[in-house]
Amino acid sequence: MTNYLAGIYEEYNRYIYHLCLKLTRNSAEAEDLMQEVWLKVVRNEEQIDKVDYIKAWLTTITMNTFRDRYRKNVRRSKYMMNQPETLDVPILDLVPNNEISTEEQIEKVAVTKIVQEKMLQLDSIYQKTLWYFYVDQYSLAEISTLMKVSIGTVKSRLFRAKARLKEIMLADTSLQDVVMA
């Protein structure tokens, strides 16, 4: 470890420990987390010269390390009920849930059907642009080539199509529960 790195450790050691303690609410876990953080700092020592704000960089490393550890622990536990009770961060902010519930799936299908019906009220140019971008997931450049227009025109059409579709959906009073203004 270089003298520069040792100086950073001396300056920010207490700060990192207190941040780890705040996140874990357990001194033993905080010490483990802090060791992981400093290990990552030592491994990425060559990047320190490129960092403008050391404290912010260390905070980011600490937060990411905490999230990574927490996600790993949740994946290891079979049920969400086994999550630690001392967690200071809402679980939904930390663990992405890629599974869609049955209710969400039904709602998604219903909303998709509504949006597709309302898209039929748009001019065909706007329909095609939205379809290419959101359904076929073409890039702006690909749409530009397909429609034989500039990328700027594609962007304008997307913007106008979304705005017009929103107007159409907001005008339908039966959709007030589905559409947010």
Describe this structure in words.
Keywords: Sigma factor, Transcription, Transcription regulation. The chain is mainly alpha-helical. The protein contains eight helices and no strands. α1 runs antiparallel to α2 and α2 packs across α3. The longest helix has 23 residues. The protein is elongated, with a radius of gyration of 25 Å. The termini are far apart.
Output the keywords.
181 residues; mainly alpha; Rna Polymerase Sigma Factor, Chain: A; Arc Repressor Mutant, subunit A; 2 domains; elongated
End-to-end distance? 56 Å
Number of distinct beta strands: 0
Which structural class matches the secondary elements? mainly alpha
Looking at the structure, what is the overall shape? elongated
Strand coverage percent = under 5%
Looking at CATH, the homologous superfamily of the largest domain is RNA polymerase sigma factor, region 2, helix turn helix motif
Largest sheet: none
CATH topology of the largest domain: Rna Polymerase Sigma Factor, Chain: A
Q: Please compute the radius of gyration using only Cα atoms.
A: 25 Å
The CATH class designation of the largest domain is: Mainly Alpha
CATH architecture descriptor name of the largest domain: Orthogonal Bundle
**Overall average pLDDT:** 81
When the domains are counted, the total is: 2
Fraction of helical residues: 55-70%
Poorly predicted tracts of residues: none
- Helices and strands, in N-to-C order? HHHHHHHH
Tally of individual helices: 8
GO molecular function: DNA binding; sigma factor activity
Keywords: Sigma factor, Transcription, Transcription regulation
InterPro entries: RNA_pol_sigma-70-like, RNA_pol_sigma-70_dom, RNA_pol_sigma70_r2, RNA_pol_sigma70_r4_t2, RNA_pol_sigma_r2, RNA_pol_sigma_r3/r4-like, WH-like_DNA-bd_sf
Protein name: RNA polymerase sigma factor
